[in-house]
# Entry
Amino acid sequence: MPLELPLWELASFDASREQMRNLLGLPHFTETDSTRTAGGEEDGWAYILPSGQRVLIILAVPHRKVRLIADPPKLDALLAMLGLEPDDPRLNRYAQPFLLD
# Structure
């Protein structure tokens, strides 16, 4: 699932593989080589929103951690796509977007 940089990690939340697949369907890509991940499989979904924002959603399956990544680094449209409220207590918003390179 190649996406060109720049991309920014904006937030994270906890969810299971079943929850994410129920929400987004089958992933666009699953990384099974644990040497390329933080250990274990990762499911990934990539989208271009109507605004042109590029979105990447990655689930670290064994850790049940979902990473929200986008360019431009704006979180609100991504949250709306996922049906999450900006003040959802499950959401871990980062104080500053983290540039991935």
The chain has a mean pLDDT of 93. Helices lie at 17-24, 76-82. Residues 14 and 65 are 5 Å apart (CA to CA).
